[in-house]
Every structure is written in structure tokens, then in C-alpha cells.
């Protein structure tokens, strides 16, 4: 699908199914295999080609799952970069013109995305779209753009172009040819929407998985914490799916994985995590970052920011947010922030805790 050609500089629409801002995030969580109690209900849905899994416990579970699916679909219609007449399309079409009124849910997510962008020094940027489209990671023929093209588009990749007024529920883009996408926080935002729905549905507990993000609500029937598995960052390894587990009591967990989307040109592999400061794939020894946080969109954004920043600066950023982090590097070393270290257990000798 092509965007309406109402701009001097064309911007190719990126498929949300293939790209979640950096085109390289995958589902890295699995529920621990345990027999579900009788009063549980599981459901699978698809929104924007992304599969959603819900498991709920307690009363009214089937109705609650339906309500949550509807809530996620409604939010998707608002924040999807590709959805016609979405809030994000309206904002991009008004770039450089004026402030526009948007749904309060969209404003809240934009505000969270901009905060992480600001706190990370732009390592995460909801304005990455103009550069990301040049590389074509989601298309059938990705290629390395010329430095001239990168230099042409890079000025439009600046989170400071995005202005958000949470009091008036308005937003604007200062530069005429800048563009925003919430794909980088989309999965976490939908998880948060589902959890909010659970809170008013009467269910006692639930877990929602959307792509690379997971949200949990309430206490499991057996009283234990939610156990999530850490997927092997070597996505080509089908024999060793999980390298370990970690637990969370509440909140959200999101993962950014380097090798999920890439292409090879002239013998060089190019990964889909782009550094907003250079417009090129990030240079890092990390292959996976998992972040836990009390807020869904924030966990998504922090995971991408940490991949761009690297382990040391990433851990410093997570400390500001009281977020947990699991960093895996190319040497199979696993570094865990102190606040979640006791919850992490590795199940293979191939990976080592640093």
C-alpha cells in the first residue's frame, strides 16, 4: 500500500506486521507449560497481522476476552501507522501545519513514547519512519540507501519535532515532512489496553501476548508469579527454543531482538534496528534486550532504546525507570539488572549469566 502522494518527499508505508519501528522485534516469551484450571479460557485473535493470545482465569472469562479483543482492535484503529483515518495518519498529514486534537489514548501513548525518546537521548525515536522506509526492511527488495539519501531524510528524524499537550489532548509535528509511527510501542500499548479491560471485567487473572510484548493481570489461581520464557536469540536455532525463564508479579515485558529482520548485500548483513542519530543499522554486540516495566508502551520503547544504546548506557536508562532488563550479547553472555536477577533462571549451558 502506498501513502497518498501529498508530500514533496515520498515516504513508503512500512508493514506493521513486519516492522515494529525497528523491524526486528519478536515474541520471546512463552507461558510455562502447566495444566490450566477448569475455570480458565484461552483465545487467539489477529490484529494487523499480529497474533494475540489471551488466557483468563475466574468468572466471565469468555466475555472478558472478547471485550479485551475489541478494546485492542479499537486502539489499533487509532494508533496504527497504516490505518486509514487513524490518529497517526491525521497527525502526519498535519505535519508542519498546526496542532490537532486527538483521542486521549493516542495522546497518552505519544507522550510516553516521547518521554523515552527524550530520556534516551533519541536512541528510541517515534520519528524514525522517514529513514526506516529508505532501507525497505519490510519489502521484498530491501537495499542499502546512499549516504546522500540518508542525509536528505535524517533531519526529519528528531523526536523534538513531536509536540504533545496532554492537557488539551493535542499534538503537532513542527517540520512539514516529518512523520511519526507508534509501531515501536504498538504491542505494549495493545497489551495495556487488554489489561485495562480485564480490570473492569470481573476476571481474577489474565495474561495477554501481543507479538513481542506480554502483559499480566491479577494473581494466578495457584498464587504463584507469572513465569515467562526467554527465547533463544539465535532465531535460526529450532532445537533450543528457550534459554531460560523469569517471573513477574505484574506489569509488562517486551523484547527487542536484533536478528529477526535483516538482509545481506555484498556480503554484509544489515539488521533492522536503526540508530536514529546515524540513519544506519545500530552497531552493537547485543542480540537481545528484554525489559520489564509497569507500563506497556514504555517497556516496548525502552527495549529498543537499550538495543541502540548498548548494555552499559541501557542499564543506566532502565535504572531511571525502575525497569528490569535482560541483555544477551553475541558471546551468549546474559546480563540481568539487579532488581530482577533473582527471578531469572537459565536452562542451558550454552548461555552464561555475566
How would you describe this protein?
The protein has helices at residues 61-79, 87-93, 104-119, 129-135, 147-153, 183-199, 296-309, 311-320, and strands spanning 40-47, 50-58, 100-101, 162-165, 170-173, 203-210, 213-218, 226-231, 242-248, 251-257, 262-265, 268-271, 274-275, 280-281, 286-293, 324-329, 333-336, 345-346, 352-353. It has one domain: Roll (T-fold), CATH 3.10.520.10. Helices cover 27% and strands 27% of the residues. It is globular, with a radius of gyration of 20 Å. The protein has 8 helices and 19 strands. With 354 residues, it is of the alpha+beta class.
Radius of gyration: 20 Å
In DSSP terms, counting alpha (H) and pi (I) runs of 4 or more, how many helices?
8
CATH superfamily (homologous) name? ApbE-like domains
Order of helices and strands: EEHHEHHHEEHEEEEEEEEEEHHEEEE
The tally of domains stands at 1
**Which regions contain 5 or more consecutive residues with pLDDT less than 50?**
1-35
Number of strands: 19
End-to-end CA span: 45 Å
> Per DSSP, what share of the residues sits in E-state strands of 2 or more residues?
25-35%
From the 3D coordinates, which CATH architecture would you assign? Roll
Q: Briefly, what CATH class?
A: Alpha Beta
Query: Which strands sit side by side, in order, in the main sheet?
Result: 1-2-6-7-10-15-16-17-19
Helix/sheet category: alpha+beta
Assign an overall shape: globular
Mean pLDDT: 88
| CATH fold naming | T-fold
What is the share of helical residues? 25-40%
Main sheet makeup: 9 strands, mixed
Amino acid at each position: 500500500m502506498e501513502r497518498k502522494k501529498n508530500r514533496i518527499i515520498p515516504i513508503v508505508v512500512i508493514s506493521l506486521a513486519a516492522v515494529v519501528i525497528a523491524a526486528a522485534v519478536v515474541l520471546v516469551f512463552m507461558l510455562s507449560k502447566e495444566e490450566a484450571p477448569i475455570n480458565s479460557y484461552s483465545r487467539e485473535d489477529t490484529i494487523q497481522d499480529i497474533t494475540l493470545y489471551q488466557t483468563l482465569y475466574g468468572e466471565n472469562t469468555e466475555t472478558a476476552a472478547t471485550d479485551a479483543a475489541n478494546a485492542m482492535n479499537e486502539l489499533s484503529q487509532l494508533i496504527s501507522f497504516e490505518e486509514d483515518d487513524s490518529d497517526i495518519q491525521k497527525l502526519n498529514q498535519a505535519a508542519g501545519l498546526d496542532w490537532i486534537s486527538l483521542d486521549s489514548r493516542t495522546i497518552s501513548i505519544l507522550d510516553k513514547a516521547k518521554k523515552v525518546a527524550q530520556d534516551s537521548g533519541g536512541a528510541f525515536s517515534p520519528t524514525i519512519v522517514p529513514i526506516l522506509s529508505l532501507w525497505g526492511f519490510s519489502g521484498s527488495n530491501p537495499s542499502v540507501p546512499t549516504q546522500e539519501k540518508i542525509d536528505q531524510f535524517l533531519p526529519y528524524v528528531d523526536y523534538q519535532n513531536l509536540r504533545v499537550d496532554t492537557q488539551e489532548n493535542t499534538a503537532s509535528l513542527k517540520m512539514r515532512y516529518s512523520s511519526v509511527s507508534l509501531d515501536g510501542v504498538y504491542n505494549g500499548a495493545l497489551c495495556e489496553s487488554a489489561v485495562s479491560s480485564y480490570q473492569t471485567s470481573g476476571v481474577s487473572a489474565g495474561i495477554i501476548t501481543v507479538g513481542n510484548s506480554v502483559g499480566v493481570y491479577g494473581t494466578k489461581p495457584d498464587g504463584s508469579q507469572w513465569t515467562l520464557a526467554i527465547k533463544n536469540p539465535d532465531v535460526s536455532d529450532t532445537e533450543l527454543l528457550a534459554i531460560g525463564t523469569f517471573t513477574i508479579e505484574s506489569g509488562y515485558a517486551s523484547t527487542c531482538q536484533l536478528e529477526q529482520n535483516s538482509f545481506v548485500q555484498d556480503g554484509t548483513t544489515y539488521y533492522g534496528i536503526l540508530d536514529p542519530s546515524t540513519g544506519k543499522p545500530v552497531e552493537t554486540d547485543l542480540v537481545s534486550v528484554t525489559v520489564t516495566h509497569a507500563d506497556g508502551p514504555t517497556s516496548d520503547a525502552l527495549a529498543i532504546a537499550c538495543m541502540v544504546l548498548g548494555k552499559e548506557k541501557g542499564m543506566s536508562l532502565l535504572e531511571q525507570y525502575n525497569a528490569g532488563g535482560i541483555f544477551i550479547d553475541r558471546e551468549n553472555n546474559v546480563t540481568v539488572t539487579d532488581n530482577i536477577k533473582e527471578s531469572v533462571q537459565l536452562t542451558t549451558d550454552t548461555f552464561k549469566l555475566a
